[in-house]
Specification:
alpha/beta; 8% strand; 1058 residues
């Protein structure tokens, strides 16, 4: 429009009219004339009747990009990518820098969801596997095939071609045996990038599975890439990139701009442009234009958008995998940021090293130096490259050591150093922390609470200034006065040394590479300087061109200027890409005919010196640039990378493995990528809630069993009394018929017996009606079962306690707090429901203590500090004042007394009032009532092991507490009633015991039911026989007994139970 074409102005009006039409259609057009004008293609007008136009084409492009961003899902195109067996369906989304923005909020999330549907990504992924850039492998250098001539040190950093092939094979096995099974296990989104060896390997291995499963495939790969990486290959009709480009008009429209900016960034020689072709497979791709202000190319938008893309899946755990190397550690700040946000990272070392990491930094430095020396001195006389490079068997110094290679596998080196750091830290810190975390599983509930309390006291002591730490608090196991958890591990020095080792090694490899280029350039320059004829200059220029190009002629401005005065210096074009492109798409040579032209006769020495002067000026620029950016000093000065490496080495979310040990790789990946809702251990609040829940369940169970026992006995007594009534009446009738009855005595006895049975029956029925034991049993047993159900649902974190998957420690803590709150509300609801039951609020149930005030911290301080304020009481106990006996404070209801542990231990094993006194001095209160009833402590949630069990008969029945070890924790393989439970634990500790319990009941129920039926059958036969052969009155007694048995069976519901 700015260029003044009428067609362009009309197009501008149509675009703006379309925008207004869309706006009115979405918000409702109130003015019919404006809607008609928009539909007819007229430009919107302002108040003065003038058409509203943008100030320039840039504003128009921004408006269009904004419209496209809001309808991003409509930009997704289907691409039928060519393959060996036909075509494969792929999805492509092409975005400019302006469009590469993901909006937050409700509308933004809806647009993102629609975009994911168009890209065929799983709607509800359970896991995200992020394949981080793994560069400098075979695929990377095959995508830059002509670099070997100009940069011979830039190729796959392996000592031999056999090692290179081995690494590629191990990479394929890693994907097939480790990554792919995890991707097949659930709904997974896999993200990759261009030039990533892991991405290409995964697509190759997974293609067969994708073709077989098609729409049922549980995973989907999405690749984030820059368009200019595929620009060169997309111009070839036989490539996969061309199929994608044909379906994307915005990409095609930017061809000239890409060529301009790539020449500016990468040089005018197209042989050294990226030559990536899009991989074969089923995947989605988001392609970025990466053009900033129409002036330069910047790939940073790719990483930023990928981070925003993954952030749109809140709560979905992300596992990152990384191997080979990166471009000068440039992405490490982003990697460190992702780790700090809660993502896990697995560093995979592709090199074959020793089985165990080195013991110290110096040993690791020596091993890395040895590897570097082998790579620098490696010489490969293999037809695979020698034919491609067209080298001859000359022995000139310019070809000496040119096959040496720098170690570009920086990620492997980082994994090697990280393994050393993990080993050193695990020997001390990880051992302590792992011991503390795993110890909770070996403790009963009361011991776990005690341990957790002491851990919190220790943490408080470490944070509180001014406290005496010379004698730490009692150990978490309650034994020796050592606090292993309080040992501060100073690993800062280790981390700093390890970070410096990584930075030193990477900087040395970069410096060696550019020094090697400088050396080769110097040799080539000297050979050019030593020529004495045009023919010799032309020959040396052809042989040394690649060495010269390593440090000169990034652009051709200097050569173009020199050619104005020296026409004999010309460029030779090498045609289509092929073997000749090892010297670039053009190479410089001497036109001997023009140089020896008799008319012009250019001076050879002057021309040679002018060309050498141009080489010197080009080298000065390259020398300054390389020393400013690629030297070891310059690399170590990058503080952001240094801090990123430090954070990665320090993080506990970064794991390492070796590609040669696939079993270890699988175990590490399963460890960090497992879909697990369970915490590693319970918090103190959770333990207290579980103790209350188990206590209430035990109380309800115990009381329910008592009501059940009473209900059964009362009902049985009613049946017996009824039978006795029938027996009395029947016996009197039989005796009277026999003529042996004494009327006076008989009437009195009969009347008294009937009165007694009637009164007893009324009494039993009255008590039963008053207590309602059957109803209370049903309510209490139902509450007990409900509590146990809630406990197990909470321990397995299922149903209402199931939380979102996340790798963030903050979100994990928030999820656990939400689960605890839900569990507490459920407990209160069940208790209130029981309390509202008929008559239960008037019983003793809710007067039974259901908890213990043992969550108040008690400090065990040093004896020296206690002696300062002990006063006269300390003098009274001088007999026990030995340095080996720690002195502690004991609290009672009345006063604080200072008693040595030996005296307290003597009280502990005494009987009667001394045991009570010991408990009062130790805990400051009388013995809790619930500790006197073992039925209230079936799940070891309360500690009754401090008492002399012989003093209290009921406590003597506490199962398994025959030693201090038994009082602390369960035997191996048994449930501790509080640890988070997996599915296997639930089956083993919940379902199997219930199954065994009911299997034990079945034989008894079956036998009782069978015997009852046999008795009823026998009673029927006996009643018939008695009625037929003798006096029928005794048959009433038999019928009464049969009715009593039938009623008892009905009351017990034996048939229903079976």
């Amino acid at each position: 429009a700015n260029q003044g074409g009428p067609a362009a102005k009309h197009l501008l009006h149509v675009v703006y009219a379309h925008r207004e039409s869309c706006r009115m259609a979405s918000h409702g057009a109130e003015d019919g004339e404006q809607a008609s004008a928009a539909a007819s293609g007229q430009a919107p007008q302002d108040d003065g009747g003038q058409a509203q136009q943008p100030t320039n084409s840039t504003d128009l492009q921004k408006e269009i990009d904004k419209m496209r961003m809001q309808t991003m899902h409509k930009l997704v195109a289907r691409v039928d990518a060519p393959a060996e067996t036909g075509t494969l369906p792929c999805k492509l989304l092409y975005l400019t820098n302006t469009q590469a923005t993901l909006e937050s909020g409700t509308e933004g999330k809806l647009r993102f969801k629609r975009m994911c549907e168009e890209l065929e990504l799983p709607s509800d992924p359970k896991l995200i596997i992020r394949l981080m850039p793994s560069m400098h492998g075979t695929y990377h250098w095959e995508s830059n095939p002509y670099w070997r001539g100009r940069f011979p040190s830039k190729r796959t950093p392996e000592v031999s071609f056999a090692d290179e092939d081995r690494t590629e094979h191990q990479l394929m096995l890693l994907v097939k045996e480790v990554i792919l099974p995890l991707a097949m296990s659930t709904q997974v989104v896999i993200t990759g990038t261009d030039q990533c060896g892991l991405t290409i390997a995964f697509l190759k291995v997974s293609l067969a599975y994708q073709n077989q499963l098609r729409e049922k495939c549980p995973f989907r790969m999405i690749i984030f890439a820059s368009a200019h990486s595929y620009e060169f290959k997309a111009r070839n009709r036989l490539t996969v990139a061309r199929a994608f480009r044909d379906q994307c008009q915005p990409w095609r429209d930017r061809e000239e701009k890409f060529e301009e900016l790539m020449a500016k960034k990468l040089g005018a020689d197209k042989a050294f442009w990226p030559m990536l072709d899009m991989p074969v497979g089923r995947y989605s791709m988001i392609l970025f234009e990466c053009i900033v202000d129409e002036k330069k190319l910047d790939d940073g938008i790719v990483t930023n958008f990928q981070n925003d893309f993954l952030a749109m899946f809140p709560g979905v755990p992300t596992t990152s995998l990384m191997t080979f190397g990166t471009n000068k550690f440039s992405i490490m700040p982003m990697v460190a940021d992702q780790i700090m946000r809660g993502s896990n990272l697995l560093l995979i070392d592709s090199r074959k090293r020793k089985d165990t990491p080195p013991d110290d930094i110096e040993t690791a430095r020596d091993e890395l130096k040895e590897l570097s020396k082998m790579l620098h001195n490696a010489k490969f006389q293999d037809a695979k490259y020698s034919n491609l490079l067209g080298r001859e068997n000359e022995t000139s110094k310019i070809h000496e050591n040119e096959y040496g290679v720098a170690d570009w596998y920086t990620t492997d080196m980082l994994a090697f150093v990280k393994a050393l750091v993990n080993k050193k830290r695990m020997s001390v810190q990880t051992e302590i922390e792992s011991d503390i975390k795993n110890r909770q599983r070996s403790l009963w509930l009361h011991a776990a609470i005690e341990t957790k309390m002491k851990q919190e006291v220790q943490a408080m002591l470490r944070k509180t200034p001014g406290l005496d730490r010379t004698n730490p608090v009692e150990d978490v196991e309650g034994g020796e006065h050592t606090d292993r958890a309080n040992q501060k591990i100073d690993d800062e020095e280790l981390l700093v040394k390890a970070t410096n080792l990584v930075m030193d090694y990477a900087g040395e490899e970069l410096q060696w590479e550019f020094q090697e280029r400088h050396r080769r350039f110097g040799l080539a320059r000297d050979r050019i300087k030593a020529t004495n004829s045009w023919q010799e200059l032309n020959k040396q220029l052809g042989e040394c061109w690649n060495a010269i190009r390593g440090c000169a002629f990034h652009d051709r401005a200097g050569i173009t200027e020199l050619q104005k005065d020296h026409e004999w210096l010309v460029f030779k074009k090498h045609g289509q890409p092929g073997k000749s492109w090892e010297k670039g798409d053009q190479s410089l040579e001497v036109d001997v005919d023009k140089a020896e032209d008799k008319d012009k006769k250019p001076d050879f020495t002057q021309g040679r010196d002018a060309f050498v002067g141009l080489l010197d000026s080009e080298f000065e620029k390259t020398y300054s640039r390389d020393h400013a950016t690629l030297s070891k000093k310059a690399f170590k000065a990058k503080e952001d990378i240094w801090l990123a490496i430090y954070d990665i080495l320090k993080s506990e979310s970064v794991f390492t493995c070796s590609m040669d040990n696939l079993r270890h790789c699988r175990s590490q990946l399963d460890l960090i990528a497992r879909i697990d809702y369970l915490p590693t251990e319970n918090s103190l609040q959770t333990l207290v809630l579980l103790r209350r829940a188990w206590t209430m369940a035990d109380i309800f169970c115990s009381e329910a069993h008592w009501y059940k026992w009473f209900s059964e006995r009362a009902f049985f007594a009613t049946l017996i009394l009824g039978a006795c009534t029938v027996l009395v009446v029947t016996s009197r009738s039989v005796i009277r018929d026999a003529g042996k009855d004494n009327e006076a005595v008989g009437d009195t006895v009969e009347r008294n017996l009937l009165l007694a049975t009637t009164l007893l029956g009324s009494l039993v029925n009255g008590i039963t009606t008053l207590l309602e034991p059957n109803r209370k049993y049903l309510i209490l047993e139902g509450a007990n079962l409900a509590l146990q159900s809630e406990i197990w649902k909470f321990r397995t974190r299922m149903c209402d306690y199931r939380t979102e998957l996340t790798s963030s420690s903050y979100l994990l803590e928030q999820n656990e707090q939400a689960a605890e709150t839900t569990f507490a509300h459920r407990l209160m609801h069940i208790e209130s429901r029981v309390q509202q039951g008929p008559g239960l609020h008037r019983t003793k149930i809710f007067s039974i203590p259901a908890t213990v005030d043992d969550t108040l911290p008690t400090f065990f301080e040093s004896k020296e500090k206690k002696n300062k304020g002990a006063g006269k009481q300390q003098e009274d106990n001088q007999d026990y004042d030995d340095k080996s006996v720690p002195v502690i404070y004991h609290y009672s209801k009345t006063a604080m007394t200072l008693v040595p542990d030996e005296v307290a231990a003597g009280w502990k094993h005494s009987k009667g009032w001394l045991a009570s006194l010991y408990y009062r001095c130790r805990h400051g209160k009388d013995i809790p009532a619930h500790l006197l009833n073992t039925d209230y402590n079936r799940h070891h949630q309360l500690d009754a092991g401090d008492f002399d069990l012989s003093t209290f008969n009921k406590l003597a029945e506490i199962a398994g507490w025959k030693s201090s070890a038994d009082r602390k924790g369960p035997p191996r393989g048994e449930d501790n009633h509080h640890s988070p439970a997996t599915a296997d634990d639930y089956i083993q500790w919940r379902l199997v015991p219930l199954r065994d319990h009911y299997q034990e009941l079945l034989p008894g129920y079956a036998t009782t039911y069978r015997n009852g039926q046999l008795f009823l059958l026998a009673a029927s036969v006996a009643s018939a026989l008695i009625s037929a052969v003798s006096n029928p009155k005794p048959a009433a007694l038999v019928a009464t007994l049969a009715g009593m048995v039938a009623t008892w069976q009905e009351f017990r519901q034996l048939e229903t139970c079976l």
